[in-house]
Amino acid sequence: MSTGMTPQALQGLKVVEMGQLIAGPFAGKTLGDFGADVIKIEAPGSGDPLRNWRLIKEGTSVWWQVQSRNKRSVALDLRSPEGQDIARRLISQADVLIENFRPGTLEGWGMDYETLSRDNPGLIMLRISGYGQTGPYRDLPGFGSIGEAMGGLRHLTGEAGRVPVRCGISIGDTLAALHGTLGVLTALYHRKVNGGRGQVIDVALHEAVFNVMESLVPEYSAFGVVREPAGSALPGIAPSNAYRCGDGGVVLIAGNGDSIFKRLMSAIGRDDLGQDPALADNAGRVRRVEELDAAIEAWTLQRGTAEALAVLAEARVPAGRAYTAKDIVEDPHYQARDMILKQATRDGYEVDVPGIVPKLMGTPGAVRSAAPRLGEDTDAVLAEAGYAPQDIAALRNRGVVA
C-alpha cells in the first residue's frame, strides 16, 4: 500500500460524506485519494450497504476495500435528534458535505443548506440524486441504471433490434460522482478567490450521463436523426469495430483516421482500398463501411489475436483486445504505471485494487489508510469535534453512536 510521503493536493481539506452505495461515496473516494480527510457517516448496526455487495471476504465486500479507502467511519444515528446535532457539528467544521439521499431527506433532518451555511458560510455541499433537487421528477427514486436509461446511454448499448444491455458496471453512478467531484473542485476555487463563500452543487444521475452523449441531440435537432444501437461499431466513423480472429479471440481496430486507414489497408494487403480516392475521407468510408469491415475481418480470421495485434502495432494502427480482470492484473503496462496496488485490509489480508487516476506529478494521490470497519473512528472524530470522553460514552449508551 502506498503511503504517499509527498504532500497531497487536497491535504487539509475536511469532507463529511453522508451518502451510501456508489455515487456519493465514489466522489468521497476520489477526494480522499488526493489527501482530503473524509469522515464517512454510517448507520449503526448496518452501515453502508456496499459493505455487503457482490463478493464477500472475511465478512466484508472486497468492493468496499477500494470504495472506502482513505476514509474514517463514524457510526451515527441520523434519525435521532442527538445524532442530527452531532452531524451538524461535524459539518460546521467541514469544507465539503457529500450526500446522495432522496431530495428532501436532509431538509427533514433540519440540515438544509441555508441552516448549515449559517454556521459554516464556506460550506460546499455536493448533492447527487436521481433527478436533481428541482423539477417534476425530483421526488422519484432513481438509481444509476435508471439515470443511464433517461440519459440516453441505454438506448445505444447492445445490438439493433435487441433489448438494450448495461455496460457491466454502474457507469451512471460513477459519471455522476466524477461530475460532482469536478463541481467540488470548481467551487473550492471560487471560494478561494471570491470571498470565502460556499455553494450547493446539484448533480442528477441522468444529467451526468447525458453530458457525455456527444452529438446525440444536435444530430436529432439538425437532421431529425435518432441514433440507434450499433453493437461494437462506432456509427458514422469508419472503420472502427471489433473483428474476430482465427483463434476465437477478438481485436478492436480503430482505423478511422485518414492516414491510419491507409496504413491499415497496407498492413492487411488491401492497398487497392487504401489508395481508392473514394475512401480518402471518413464520409466515403462510412458509405462503404460494410465492405471495409468485411475486408478487415477476412484478414483477422486468418490470424491469431496476438499475431494480428503485432502486425497492427508495427503499422502504427490503434488496436487492442478486450481485457479481462486477469489480463489487467498481469499486464506489464498497468504494473509499470502503478495501476494495480497491493492494499492491506483491516481484516488482515491483502487485495489488489485499482491505482489512482489522474496522476499528478507534483502532488500525487496515495492510499494512506485501508477501508475502515463500521464506526471504527467514531471516538477519534467526535473527540476532534470537541466531545469529551464521558459525553461520547453516554452517547454510545443511548445508541446515538456506535
From TrEMBL:
Keywords, comma-separated and alphabetical: Transferase
Recorded GO MF terms: transferase activity
Gene3D superfamilies xrefs: Crotonobetainyl-coa:carnitine coa-transferase, domain 1, formyl-coa transferase, domain 3
Protein name per Swiss-Prot or TrEMBL: CoA transferase
Organism: Aquincola tertiaricarbonis
